[in-house]
Write a structure and sequence with these properties.
Layout: H1 17-36, E1 40-41, E2 47-49, H2 50-53, H3 58-63, E3 67-68, H4 80-85, H5 88-95, E4 98-100, H6 105-114, E5 123-132, E6 144-153, H7 159-174, E7 179-185, H8 186-195, H9 202-209, H10 212-215, H11 217-226, H12 231-241, H13 247-257, H14 262-280, E8 287-289, E9 303-309, E10 318-323, E11 337-343, H15 344-353, H16 359-362, E12 367-369, H17 374-389, E13 394-396, H18 403-412, E14 417-420, H19 423-428, E15 431-435, E16 441-444, H20 446-453
Parallel strand pairs: 1-5, 7-8, 12-13, 12-14
Antiparallel strand pairs: 2-4, 3-4, 5-6, 6-11, 7-9, 9-10, 10-11, 14-15, 15-16
Helix pairs in contact: 1-7, 1-15, 7-14, 8-14, 9-11
Length: about 450
Amino acid sequence: MASPKPSIPKGTRDFTPEEMVKRNYIFDTIKRIFKLYGYLPIETPAMENLSMLLGKYGDEGDKLLFRVLNSGDFLSKVNEDEFTKRESLSLAGKISEKGLRYDLTVPFARFVVQHRNEISFPFKRYQIQPVWRADRPQKGRYREFYQCDVDVVGSNALLNEVELIQMIHDIFEQLNVNVVVKLNNRKILAGIAEIIGASDKMMDVTIAIDKLEKIGLEKVNEELLAKGISDESVQKLQPILLMEGTDEEKFDVLESQLLTSEIGMKGVAEMREIFEAVRELGLEDLTELDLTLARGLNYYTGAIIEVKAKDLKFGSICGGGRYDDLTGVFGMPGISGVGISFGADRIYDVLNDLNLFSDSENASTQVFFVNFGKEEEKYCLKKIRQIRAAGINAELFPESAKMKKQMTYANKKQIPWVVLVGKSEIESNILSVKNMKTGEQKEYTLNDFINLIK
């Protein structure tokens, strides 16, 4: 019987060394800015108890959870009647008690409650780990992907939202990606639901209008009607969905329309404060008030944030928002937080599509020593040690193979500098160096060569 062809599950990927160098460039850039703003790292397990995850992402989110079968005889708790009925949801609860994490925010909330006596508030953390969703794979959407989360909990101050917007600016400026930060507020959405007479359908309204850009206005209206929202309420919603103009003009219209909604007016006031602070920082060209932005996760209660690349038609590459009581479901009510998540995989695709990875990110090794034999090898090892001590990535070919083989190796790894050391170089205590980009070859002392690279 033939062995099965090697493969991996749909929606997952292998990463080559060249791809990992690029990915680490993204991770390192993001991590550097996180630390610059005083955030500290944590990690949580890939698996969480399903009791910690279910009900936190809405019905649609719950369906996308990857469940892990119980160890051993996972059918032992299922009686014959339950098995015969084949009711998937009922059976799932009996045979699976754990699931892969859907995001990093809910595990973070669990972490805060579990470690409440070990941390100081406000608690500022970042977390860079993979998450899993049983979604339909497509370009920019994977079943396994990394999130780079940054959150602060234990503070109601809108300064935190402003700081997150600054971090978004700094990170994408470092990555040379032109972005727009779209902002909305769940309180504004609640106010809109209230004035159109659909307060009891608030989640249905937000989930539907969050799909506006993807499926269009007509389909959104159809979905609203299918959810039991009256035609009169849907018609009242249209002017808000189609609202245009400057952010200030949108605020003025919202204030006039939400005048009778206390929660709606509170949302407008919060957003005005954020936009004013952003304007003071000179970042007003970065942000945009988008009333169709809803982000269909249950736990957002205030500001909602979504980031898109301007130069590429692509999904969001970063998003998040304010959650006032996410820790409450874990027995610690009243702890407010706000955070954003950078989608590393989508950012990678954007940088790749826009050719924003430079050659330096492609080359893990900067200096390559050709191996001509045992005597030369001993000499080169000493020089390489000094080069590495200067913080420069360097390697020596492990055997004295043919020159063509060694140079092909250096070319495939896109190494910019190749050092050739023979007997004459050893006697003169110099390095003969070839610039692989220009083809030019020169002689240097070790110190001069290190200074040239640095």
